Amino acid sequence: MSIISLLTDFSLKDNFVGVMKGVILKINPEAKIVDICHQVKPQGLLEAALLLKSSFRYFPSGTAHLVVVDPQVGSKRKKILVKTKNYFFIAPDNGVLSPALKEEPAIEIIEITNEKYFLKPLSNTFHGRDIFAPVAAHVSKGEHVEEFGRRIESFQVLELPKVKITSQSLVGEVIYIDHFGNLVSNIDAKTFKNFTKNKIFKVFIKDKIINHLSHSYAEGLTSKPLALIDSFNYLEIALRDGSVSDYLAVDKGEKVVINRI
Amino acid sequence: MSIISLLTDFSLKDNFVGVMKGVILKINPEAKIVDICHQVKPQGLLEAALLLKSSFRYFPSGTAHLVVVDPQVGSKRKKILVKTKNYFFIAPDNGVLSPALKEEPAIEIIEITNEKYFLKPLSNTFHGRDIFAPVAAHVSKGEHVEEFGRRIESFQVLELPKVKITSQSLVGEVIYIDHFGNLVSNIDAKTFKNFTKNKIFKVFIKDKIINHLSHSYAEGLTSKPLALIDSFNYLEIALRDGSVSDYLAVDKGEKVVINRI
Amino acid sequence: MSIISLLTDFSLKDNFVGVMKGVILKINPEAKIVDICHQVKPQGLLEAALLLKSSFRYFPSGTAHLVVVDPQVGSKRKKILVKTKNYFFIAPDNGVLSPALKEEPAIEIIEITNEKYFLKPLSNTFHGRDIFAPVAAHVSKGEHVEEFGRRIESFQVLELPKVKITSQSLVGEVIYIDHFGNLVSNIDAKTFKNFTKNKIFKVFIKDKIINHLSHSYAEGLTSKPLALIDSFNYLEIALRDGSVSDYLAVDKGEKVVINRI
Lengths: 261, 261, 261
What we know:
The structure is a homotrimer. Chain A is α+β, with helices and mostly antiparallel strands. Chain A folds into 2 domains: 2-152, S-adenosyl-l-methionine hydroxide adenosyltransferase, N-terminal (Rossmann fold, 3-Layer(aba) Sandwich), CATH 3.40.50; 164-260, Elongation Factor Tu (Ef-tu), domain 3. Chain A has helices spanning 16-27, 45-53, 98-103, 127-140, 189-196, 244-248; strands spanning 2-8, 31-37, 64-68, 79-84, 88-92, 106-112, 149-152, 164-165, 169-177, 183-188, 201-205, 208-210, 226-229, 234-238, 255-260. In chain A, β8 and β9 (169-177) form a beta hairpin. The termini of chain A are far apart. The model of chain A has no long low-confidence stretch (mean pLDDT 96). At the A-B interface, β1 and β2 of A face α1 of B.
C-alpha cells in the first residue's frame, strides 16, 4: 500500500488536480490518492497549514502528504521533503508544513533538487505537476529520501495567531470557519481548561456572551450561539442547525475572549 | 474487493471527507472509497435520502453505503448498521436510509454500540470520523454485523412528499433540482402512466402548460419547458440547453399538476 | 492496472458522477477512476475539449479517457470510442475529442452501437451512466474496441478560435480562465516565439500594455498584470497573488494582441 494525500488551493474547477493524479499513477500505478482538500483559498498558507495539522495523523503510517499552496512557484523558494516517524511531507518551503511538524517532528529534511525526478520540460508555474507529484510518487514507491537532494537543517516556520493569557482573561481569535459556518478559534482544549479550571466563565464573541460549554450542536438553540470543544480539540462557537458565522456576521480574525468570574 | 460509498453534507471545503478516508484506509487499506455526493445542503436529510435511494443499486454487491447527514450528532439518536440482500448501510438513525430500504428491504438492523470499533478519544461532534468511518471500514473487511451492537427491530422513517391522486388530476411537487436546473418531481413513471394511460394530458407548472412527454432534452426548444421521464424514473421538467429552474424561477416544493382531458 | 479518467459537466452537486463510478466498478472492480474535472460549464464543449487536450498525455498508457459533455443526449448524435497509440477515448461524437485527437491521432474509430454493453433499461437522458460508463469499464478490462460497434472513418471536429497573424500583429483571445483568475489565451508558445523572435514586443489586453515575458507569477507585482508562457504552453496573462480576470474585469473572448515594434 502506498497512500498519497493531496492538499492544494487548486480547487476542482480546472484540471490541475486530475493532471497531478495522472502524473502520480504514471510513476506508481499502485498509489492510492486521497484528497484532503483543494478548496483552500488561493495562496491561503495559514488555512492549508491548519488543515494539514488537523488531518495528517488520521492517515495510515507511511502516507506521503503532498501540499501544494505555492504563491512563490518558480522563484527561489526551496522545495522540501520531510521524513517523520510515521509520514512523509512534500511541499514548497513556505511554512505550510510547520504546524504539523510541531506535532510530528522532522527526522530528516531534504531540499528537493535532483532533477532526475522532475517532469521535462519543467514549467515555472506548475511545480505541483512537474516536481511535487512525481517526487511524491517516487517516495510512495519506497525511494530513499536522500535520493531527492541534500539534507538541510531547518524549514520555514509559519506562526499561527497566538492566544494572549492574562490573570483575568484569555484572548483568542477565529482562525477557521468551516462549511457549516462554525467558528473555530485558536484556543485549544488544554489552554481553555487550564484557564477555566472548571470554574465559572464567560465566552465573549462580538456582542454575545456564552456562559457554559455544550457537548454537542444538538444541545443548543437555533437562535443562540453555543460554545464547545470541537472534534479537533479547539474551542468552537456554533449554532444548532445553522451558520453562526452568518448569524453573527463574523469573519476570520474576530476576537474570542474568555473571562473568569 | 471492498467498496465503501460516501454521502454527506460536509461539502469539500474542509478536511472532513479527507479525514474520514484516512480513517477508513488505516483500518482497511484495501477499501475502495467512492464519493456519491458531499454537497447535500447542511442538515438536508430529505435530499440525502433521495440521492441514496437513486444511487445505491448502481454499486457492486457488497458495497457499504455510508451516509453522514447528522444534525443530531452527539445526542441520543441511534447509529445503525443495516444489512440487506446486496448491501450494507451505515448512518445515524434519522430516517435518511428509509427510502432506500423501502426498495431494498432490511434483513438485519443493528444499533451500533460496540465502542471497540470507535476512534478514541471519541468526539461528540464528528461521528463521521470517530464512529461511522471505522465501522464502515470494519464492515468492508468482512466483520459480522452482529459484532457492532445489538439487533433492533425498526429504524426511523422519513416520509417523502406524497402525490395526491383524484379522478381528474395528479398533484405532485418538485422535490429535487439538479445542477442543470432540471426540476425532478415526486411523480414516478408508473404513477404517471397509470394515470395518463396513453391518453391526452396536460402538465401544469407555475404559469406553463406542457402537453406531451419528450424523450430527450435535445427534442425541446431553448425557450419552452419540456417534460420527460428522467433517468431515475421520475417526471422531470427541463429546458433544452438551459436551467428551467432559473427560467421559471421555481424552487423545491413548487406544485406539478397533471390533468387528464 | 486499468485507469479510467472522467471529464464531465455534471458538477459534484448531484449523484451523477458517483453513480457512474458505481457502474464502472460493478463491471471492473479493478478499475482506478480519476476525475479530471466535473466543473465544466453545462454544455461547455469547448471548455471540455481544452481540458481534455491539456490533460490526456499526463496519464499512463492504456488509460480510457471518458468525456461526458452531451447536450444532444438521447438524440441521433453518435457515441464513439477512439483508439490511439497510447489511449482510448470515449465520448459523444460532438467534437469534444477533436483537439486531443489532433495531437494524438486516431488509429481506430468505432461507433458504439452494441447494446450488449449498455445498461438496461436504457434511459434517454443519462448515457453517461447507461452507455459511456459501462463501455469504458469494458474497455478497461481489455475488451477489443471492435466489439463495441462498427468502424467509421471520421468524427465531428470542434474548431478552437484561431489566432490571426499579420506582419505587424498577432491577434488572439482569452479562451480559458482558471480558478486563480489567470487568463489563458489561444496563442501557443511556438506561435508567440515565431512572431516575436526574441525582439521587442508589446502585449495589449484591454487598456493595459505588457512589454516583456515573466518567468513566474512571483516575479510580478500585485498591481500590474504580467504575461508568461504557462504550464500548458500557452501565453497567459496573470497577476501576482491575485485574479487578473477580476482586476481587469475580463471574460472569455477578450482580445489579446501582440505587436512587434
